[in-house]
Amino acid sequence: MNSLFRPVHLLISLSMVVACASAVVAQRGNASGDSEFGPVVTAYLGYLSNEQEVVDDRASRREINAAYYRRNSNRIHALKQMAVRLARQSGNDYVPELEAVTSDELGTILEHPPKPTSLRQNEVVANKFRFLGQVRTGDVFYVFARLDPYEQADLMSRGGGPAASSETNAKGQRIGQSTTRARRVVPQ
Question: Residue 145: exposed, middle, or buried by beta-carbon count in 10 A (0-12, 13-18, 19+)?
């Protein structure tokens, strides 16, 4: 019995070492893939991945139809694309509150929705949203960043926002308006 026990014990020990080593390699692979972004952007992308899992789960249990599944999966993909684009362009570990809507859904976030063709990049709409651009992922999604209360108050104090200043530079951006906000630093 003793001679049989040693090879089995050795085999079990070896398999545990291999399993631990592969787990370490997998963790290093994941860490290097996420190192492009800071913890805030990484968390937002993780949140979107979790949302996709929820949609996938609901579809697998036949709680939603194929059209609903497709649209929401495309919306999640559009939000991911925009978050990555913003993080790479600004170099900041910051993601504003994003909304991605199709042309027929504009009325869900805006009381008086504009025509999608009239939207210009970085344009402030209804003193609530900044239009970031459109993303085509199966459907065309119009992606907006919700303005924070400080930005909204600033627009209101200037006299109502977009109509108050119509001078723009070559990129279509209003003069004096920044394309990205500085990262908010919390004192430690």
Answer: buried
